[in-house]
Amino acid sequence: MTDHLGDSVFARIARKELPAKIVYQDEEITAFHDIEPLAPVHILIVPNRVIPTLNDATLEDQQLLGKMMLVARQLACQHSISDTGYRVTMNVNSDGGQSVFHIHLHLMGGQKLGRMA
Ligand code: AMP
């Protein structure tokens, strides 16, 4: 479903061409519930435009990447997991377990999370 030429399933969600449970959207970022949640709260925070992997990010993306972290923090607060705790991760390429090549933060919480591999 993903290509590396500027379109992806997440870009289509951001454009509302595909359904998703969107919990946040602005001109730069969209956040929505993961379709196969691994925790009671599992939200993906994605830029609206495609950056395939973190390796493709440039200095120009610095503000955007920081904003994604702050959106994750805001959503953690709104989902009442700020105090109990949560995890924010980004997978990169094959060994990192990336399956959708449009960078995204995973926000996970709502239960005690196991150790990372
Ligand atoms: P990653 O393996 O880090 O690339 O994460 C991709 C995530 O996207 C997985 O957790 C998938 O469950 C999730 N995912 C894939 N397609 C969709 C979709 N259409 N809507 C919501 N989440 C999706």
How would you describe the overall organization of this protein?
This protein has 117 residues and is an alpha+beta fold. It has one domain: HIT family, subunit A (2-Layer Sandwich). The chain has 3 helices and 5 strands; from the N terminus they run H-E-E-E-H-E-H-E. The longest helix is centred in the middle third of the chain and has 17 residues. The radius of gyration is 14 Å and the shape is globular. The site of adenosine monophosphate has 11 residues, from loops.
Characteristic terms for this protein:
HIT family, subunit A; single chain; 117 residues; 5 strands; 3 helices; binds adenosine monophosphate; five-stranded antiparallel beta sheet; 23% helix; alpha+beta
Sequence-ordered SSE layout with sheet pairings:
Elements lengths: L8 H6 L7 E4 L3 E5 L7 E7 L14 H17 L7 E4 L3 H4 L8 E5 L8
Antiparallel strand pairs: 1-2, 2-3, 3-5, 4-5
Adenosine monophosphate binds next to loops.
Radius of gyration: 14 Å
CATH structural architecture? 2-Layer Sandwich
Q: Averaging pLDDT over every residue, what do you get?
A: 95
Report strand order across the widest sheet: 1-2-3-5-4
> How many structural domains?
1
Put simply, the count of helices is 3
Strand content: 15-25%
Shape: globular
Distance separating the two termini? 27 Å
Spans where pLDDT lies below 50 across 5 or more residues: none
By secondary-structure content and strand pairing, the structural class works out as alpha+beta
Identify every distinct bound molecule in the structure, by name, code or SMILES: adenosine monophosphate
Number of strands: 5
Write the H/E string, N to C: HEEEHEHE
- What is the CATH class name? Alpha Beta
The CATH superfamily label reads HIT-like
The major β-sheet equals: 5 strands, antiparallel
